[in-house]
Design a protein that fits this description.
Elements: H1 3-32, E1 40-50, E2 55-64, E3 69-70, E4 75-76, E5 80-86, E6 89-95, E7 104-111, E8 122-132, H2 135-138, E9 144-150, E10 155-157, E11 163-166, E12 168-177, H3 179-208, H4 215-233, H5 244-269
Helix pairs in contact: 3-5, 4-5
Length: 281
């Protein structure tokens, strides 16, 4: 193959590559220039879940689109009233024409049985409705597009069916404790049992063998007795007292440590321990 033919082949290859790149750019540009959603886009993010109050905090960031948005700042061309569900019913957020749609946080109810902690399952419902100025009575319904996401640590949140579109949007999220949270709670159960049984065994040994009274050990039992509630309440997402975790470990551990401490003090008071004589091994 001579030099002119080689140059022609190279130029043809370069032209083909440029054509492919240009077609890709055109496709991206056309997709970007596609008409936006003609309504209000809601980006909802689950922030916290409180099992004590059976509620969850959701941050909602509304953005107007289509004929409701005035570029380049996405200012509202019409007044909009946005209704969102809360633990006390619905709450209206009014936005004036020519202004921004500021984000806000709302508290929504949480359903589910928390008595089986740490193996409980929860449901979080998010509902929204929008209309033009005047509200639902005199205004016109505004289409909504709801996207739900979660950055909640310690929980596994289902993302299935987390997108809704229509005049009224309603999403139910299934919220379960993460495997790390479940394993940590089970680990704390085992630790409580081990410490409580160990404390009881040492107390029985002191009483049965009439060993000298150990004030440091009695202090350790007293500290352990009041440390268990602190550890229990620090577990991620734990409800108030009365859940499965308490019946499986916490109540028993508290009772065993209290029994060991009471027996130790009673034995010393009645001088069942050799407090005035040397111990006999």
């Amino acid at each position: 193959m001579n030099a002119p033919s080689t140059r022609i082949a190279v130029r043809a290859a370069v032209i083909a590559v440029v054509a492919v790149l240009a077609a890709s750019v055109v496709d991206v540009a056309s997709a970007t220039a596609a008409p936006s959603f003609n309504g209000v886009v809601l980006d909802a993010r689950l922030i916290t879940v409180n099992t004590a109050t059976a509620s969850a905090t959701v941050r909602i960031d509304p953005t107007p689109g289509g004929s409701l948005a005035q570029p380049p700042l996405d200012l509202l061309t019409k007044g909009v009233v946005l209704y969102t569900s809360t633990v006390n019913g619905s709450l209206a957020h009014s936005y004036r024409a020519g202004g921004f749609m500021d984000p806000f946080e709302t508290t929504v109810p949480v359903d589910g049985d928390t008595s089986t902690y740490p193996f409980h399952h929860l449901r979080v419902g998010i509902s929204a409705l929008a209309s033009t100025a005047g509200g639902v009575r005199s205004g016109k319904t505004v289409p909504l597009l709801l996207h739900v996401s979660s950055s909640l640590a310690g929980y596994r949140v289902s993302t299935q069916s987390a997108v809704r579109e229509g005049p009224v949007v309603d999403v139910v999220l299934h919220v379960d404790p993460s495997w790390a949270a479940v394993l940590f709670a089970v680990f704390i159960m085992l630790v409580m049992w081990a410490l409580a049984l160990g404390a009881l065994a040492v107390a029985v040994s002191l009483l049965a063998r009439r060993r000298r009274f150990e004030g440091a050990f009695a202090g350790f039992l007293a500290v352990l007795l009041f440390a268990f509630p602190t550890v229990r309440n620090s577990l991620p997402g734990i409800p108030p007292v009365g859940v499965l975790f308490d019946y499986a470990s916490f109540f028993w551990a508290e009772a065993l440590v209290a029994l060991a401490l009471i027996a130790l003090i009673t034995g010393w008071t009645m001088r069942a321990l050799a407090g005035t004589t040397e111990r006999r091994d």
